[in-house]
Amino acid sequence: MRLVRYRHDGAIHTGALDGDEVIGLGDIPVIELLDPAARPSPRAVAAAPRLPVAQVELCNPLPRPRMLLAVGLNYADHAAESGQPVPEFPIVFNKQVSCVTGPFDPIHFPRAGRMLDYEGELAFVVGRRCRHVPEGRGLDCIGGYTVINDVSVRDWQFRSPTWTLGKSFDTHGPLGPAVVTADELGDPHGLRLRTWVNGELRQDSSTDQLIFGCGRLVELLSTVCTLEPGDVVATGTPAGIGMTMDPSGLLRVGDVVRVEIERIGAIENPVIAEPDATAVW
User: Were 16 and a residue from 23, 44, 160, 250 both cysteine, which residue would form a disulfide, CB within 3.0 to 4.6 Å?
Assistant: First the structure.
């Protein structure tokens, strides 16, 4: 299934994408539907109401996940363009979950930052509670896959070796448009991943170029901490980030960033100045 959350007539519901229609699945959280046993029967799905996608607003399918982890330098070409050696062990950092936003929502150019950048990535969503998972069983613990833009404020990112602050500004985790269940997608490696800025192709790679694949990441992460359903892991970005371009390809207000992954979908987000209304005290 291609699970989504959508807004229609002022209310948010859970649904499944089917071509250019969305099938209404009521209010069951997407996280619960990662478990095949919790999904409606084929007969119930066939009888469910349908709406044209054009008549609804697709929302973030995973609002405020419990945990959002990300992996740095997980493509050899990205490590090379960044002037870094290929890691012998994954570089894992966290993005604060308050950064997560919808697949077509604006990205804020922060008033406190100067170097705004994009990173198109495959993200996987944990489907079952797990700990100490061997690599060969890692994919069995993944419930689905989605698209994420690991938006980064580079001047903040490199102020600290943990990278967390520069990766966690509000709106800097657009995600979606759907979570494609693992049983529908199959092997997540070998999917074409592309990122455009204002229609210019910036990143064009394949997830088979991941240094540490999804199963290996589940193994390593679950060795350290218990993974829970709905936890999200962004697997890393390929070459083509704005910071390394000459001249610079860093984002500016007015830009539009599109990230697309084969068989999963695309997110597209305009860059706007951070609104004054975000200041709260």
Answer: 23
Residue 159, CA distances (Å) to 31, 156, 166 in order: 35, 5, 8
Bridge partners for 230 per DSSP: none
Q: Helix count (H) and strand count (E) of the chain?
A: 7, 19
What is d(CA 52, CA 253) in angstroms, rounded to the nearest whole number? 31
Q: How far is the C-alpha of 66 from the C-alpha of 88, rounded, in Å?
A: 28
**What stretches in the chain show pLDDT beneath 50?**
none
Instruction: Write the pLDDT tens digit of every residue in 112-149.
Output: 999 999 999 999 999 999 999 999 999 999 999 999 99
Using one digit for the tens of pLDDT, what is the confidence trace for 20-30?
Answer: 999 999 999 99
CA distance 64 to 125: 13
Query: Which residues are CB-neighbours of 117 under 8 A, at least 6 positions away?
Result: 151, 152, 153, 154, 241, 242, 243, 250, 251
Are 158 and 93 within 8 A, CB to CB?
A: no
| Fold entry, domain 68-278 | Fumarylacetoacetate hydrolase; domain 2 (3.90.850)
